Amino acid sequence: MRGFGIDLGTANTVVGTPEDGIVVNEPSLMMVRTKDPHRALAIGQDASALVDRTPVGITPVRPIRNGVIVDLESARAYVSAVIKRAAPARRNVLRPTGVIAIPAGATPLERRALLEVGHEAGLRKVALIPEPVAGALGCGINPLEPRTHLIVDIGGGTSEVTAICFGGVLSHRSCRMAGEDLTRAIHRYLRAKHEIIVGELTAERAKVGTTETTDGQTLVVEGRDAATGRARLLTLETDEIMDAVKPAMTGIAQTLAACLDDLPPRAISDIMAEGILAIGGGSILRGMSQMIEESFGLPVKTAERPLTCVAEGATACMDHPEVVAAFAS
Question: What residues contact residue 128 under an 8 Å CB cut-off, 6+ apart?
Fold first, then answer.
């Protein structure tokens, strides 16, 4: 095994290898004991299954926020557990290498923290690649060609808009409006409009449900009645969910507008011809692409695999070290 391409997202962690493709695609979540917060009891799907039902003394931890590390010790334990899950039996004596995708706007301190965690988690050599560049490469785009590409990455904790051309970044803007904000907006809407209190995973499922249904269809959510405290089921029109998340979608559109304002006319011409590439979990929300197209008059192409293309691109960087070298800071 040569190594791993890693996308440490706020919502999900995705790991790929050149030999096997995607080998890990699970929530970026870890369960720990309150008295020993730096040792993982469960990660990923195993940890997600315990959300809203954890026993006393066990708590959920998200060591990655907005694509960067918030606690070094927790992140070290989490990344070590992820690598063990990705390669339970080492196929060679040498430790694997790793290419980790990071937000394009990550600070030098945040970059150093990721490098340190990668080394201490068992990776022999660690390289960093901006997420929009990895996402573009994972979608078959050559980031080194002399043509402008605009990538909108709507992740769990942050949304980034990045224009790249000829191995460099022409413009970059980011905002804190992203997938988690969409989920919280649904949670608030259900309580205010329908007086039902739902859990985090239920609100997340309601959001994801809007990507899988068509106009006029409904979805059912379960929760607790805010007035009586009794269990309750609620049937919703999917259009209601779209109304609940519109404010967050507007914030993403404003970030895109600011990025476009920074670009020269010829770069805009390239984007008009090529279209905007949308990646990340938020890009598949029903109505997102249509909102961008109507607001800016630019075509939008959603990645075929928006949830895994960043990890796929990071993995592909092992065969294209020139891409890593071009975007290294």
Answer: 99, 100, 101, 102, 111, 114, 115, 324, 328
184, burial (CB in 10 Å: exposed 0-12, middle 13-18, buried 19+): middle
Question: What is the chain's percent helix, strand, coil content, to nearest 5?
Answer: 40, 25, 35
| Residue 5, token pair as written in the block | 């391409």
Retrieve residue 275's tokens.
């279209």
Amino acid, single-letter form, for residue 57? G
- Return the CATH number at 163: 3.30.420.40
> 74 exposed, middle or buried (CB, 10 Å; 0-12, 13-18, 19+)?
buried
User: For each of the chain's 329 residues, which pLDDT tens digit applies?
Assistant: 689 999 999 999 999 999 999 999 999 999 999 999 989 999 999 999 998 888 999 999 999 987 789 889 999 999 999 999 998 765 555 789 999 999 999 999 999 999 999 999 989 999 999 999 999 999 999 999 999 999 999 999 899 999 999 999 999 999 988 988 989 999 999 999 999 999 888 998 888 776 554 455 788 999 999 999 999 999 988 788 888 888 878 889 999 999 999 999 999 999 999 999 999 999 988 788 888 999 999 999 999 999 999 999 999 999 999 999 999 85
- Give the distance from CA 8 to its chain's centroid: 8
Yes or no: say if 115 and 121 are a contact pair by the CB < 8 Å rule: no
Sequence-ordered list of residues with C-beta below 8 angstroms from that of 312, at least 6 positions apart, any chain: 5, 16, 21, 22, 134, 137, 138, 305
Considering Cα of 155, then 157, then 159, then 160, what sign does the dihedral take?
negative
Residues found in the chain: 329
Q: Number of folded domains in the chain?
A: 3
Please indicate, yes or no, whether residues 297 and 251 belong to a single structural domain of this protein: yes
Burial of 317 (0-12, 13-18, 19+ CB in 10 A): buried
Do 101 and 172 belong together in one domain? no
